[in-house]
Amino acid sequence: MQQIPDFARKRAELSPDAIAFHEVTTGRKINFRTFDNRAERCASVLRKLGVIPGERVTILCHNNATFFEILFGCAKAGAILVPLNWRQTTAELAPIVADCAAKLLFHDAETAELAESLGKATDLRTIPFPAYETLIVETAAAKPVSSAWPAEGIWYLLYTSGTTGVPKAVIQTFGMALANYVNIQQATGLIATDSTLNFLPLFHTAGINLHALPVFIAGGTSHIIPKFEIDDALHVIGNGAITLFFGVPAIYQAFSLHPAFASADFSRVRHWGCGGAPLPENLIREFLGKGVRVCNGMGMTETGPTVFLMDPARAPEKIGSVGKPQVLTEVRLVDSEGHDVPDGERGELLFRGPNITPGYFGNPEATASAIDRDGWLRSGDVGRKDADGYYYIVDRIKDMYISGGENVYPAEVEAVLVSHPDVLEAAVLGVPDAKWGETGHAFVAPRPGRSVAAAELRAYARERLAAYKVPGHITLLEDFPRTAAGKVQKHLLRVRAQEKQT
């Protein structure tokens, strides 16, 4: 079995005095030598607590350096970390704890009440970070079992965000982490002098891998804020502390609406990435107006996550594209029968490579459904490739609906609606219709301080879309239900649509 050197130990050897993590709000800075030593002590603490190799350990916290310390401590001890979503309730988290059969929970002060409730509901042993810190101080770093990790070894589990309402534990291996580093390095030119801002939730792949882990492996610095606060983020960006930034569309939208946006200095950030959902063209152009080339990307928790990331050179020309597949990932576009489709045609995206998950923990049925015998992962996304080899995401297969016998992809309709000057955001889904079989139901959020009528939006859409694509229903909202990663939860919008039609 292929072995991968311990990333933390290697960085401690190569750049011991370089800063690995900087907690912006506390001012705490940790160099690679200290970080590796503390991670070794964490592994000893885990053994002292009775954690055996392969056992799952849960963690509930906002963004901080201790999370990464425990992540690497688990790797050194052979344990598997399971980050939990601090936005969820005890009722939502208890089945996850049962599914992964964890016995131990680390948590920060902000999540203490939830951790206590979860511990009582599941018999988890809970350890607050101050108690963990005491254990670290009292425990000597034992000699690690191995200085290398198996490439296919399970490092941590990420439960899917549950936009479908049914989370699964996606296996994340050491090999996937290395492959994601290579893909990010290829896409961004990542080097040891780079730094990033870590604020996306650590129970999602972006919080860990975009770009904190790749920056760590490269020897750079992650500046950490506990969660997204727009003033804090703009301050860190404005003072020139970071060179690489990654956010979801909701973050870029928040920046664009902030009073300081017009005067903000973004010049020190050399690469801007975006994922989780397509960044609307109007936002792309707003940032281009400030000299910022936001590079759309696409990946999944199951892909480690990086597959696509647009190159800055052609970003203004290829608006809407997620770029080309990065160096360690193969991509196919296939029809419903599994045959490759020609350039320009729509097909489902399939992925293969060392960045692809081996499957879902404890769920062989879901694994077999998602990954075929040749290692190709079904994405569930419809895409197309242009003549230059650039890919575009059309929509999720499950989001497509059929109106009057014609396929309708909601993303296309959403793009038209958000191009209206008074519309901030839109989400479209298919609902039953007596005449056409299905029709669109659009949920629309107006821009702050503006209003728009449903009839006006339909007329606007009809000028730009075929009649069967124009939504039959339009509901105005102030905001959308979202996951912690900023994705719109369409299954909750579907419930609202059903309520309106009954």
**Number of domains as seen in the coordinates:** 2
The low-pLDDT segments are none
Strand order of the largest sheet: 17-21-20-19-18
Count of extended strands = 26
Any overview of this molecule?
The chain is an alpha/beta fold and 502 residues long. It has two domains: 3-385, ANL, N-terminal domain (Rossmann fold), CATH 3.40.50.12780; 400-501, ANL, C-terminal domain (GMP Synthetase, Chain A, domain 3, 2-Layer Sandwich), CATH 3.30.300. The protein contains 16 helices and 26 strands. The strands form eight sheets. A five-stranded antiparallel β-sheet has the order 17-21-20-19-18. Strands 3-2-12-11 form a four-stranded mixed β-sheet. A four-stranded parallel β-sheet has the order 5-4-6-7, with helices on both faces. Helix 15 (454-462) links the parallel strand 25 and strand 26 (473-476). It is globular.
Question: Which characteristics define this entry?
Answer:
four-stranded mixed beta sheet; Rossmann fold; alpha/beta; 502 residues; 2 domains; globular; five-stranded antiparallel beta sheet; 26 strands; GMP Synthetase, Chain A, domain 3; 32% helix
What order do the helices and strands come in, and which of them pair?
Layout lengths: L2 E3 L1 H8 L4 E5 L5 E3 H17 L7 E5 L4 H13 L2 E4 L6 H11 L3 E4 L4 H11 L2 E4 H10 L9 E3 L3 E6 L9 E5 H15 L6 E4 L6 H5 L2 H7 L2 E4 L5 H9 L5 E4 L1 H9 L13 E4 L6 H8 L5 E6 L6 E4 L11 E3 L6 E5 L12 E6 L11 H7 L6 E9 L5 E6 L4 E3 L2 E3 L1 H9 L4 E11 L3 E10 L7 H9 L10 E4 L13 H12 L1
Parallel strand pairs: 2-12, 4-5, 4-6, 6-7, 11-12, 13-14, 14-15, 25-26
Antiparallel strand pairs: 1-8, 2-3, 9-10, 15-16, 17-21, 18-19, 19-20, 20-21, 22-23, 24-25
Helix pairs in contact: 1-2, 2-3, 2-6, 4-5, 7-9
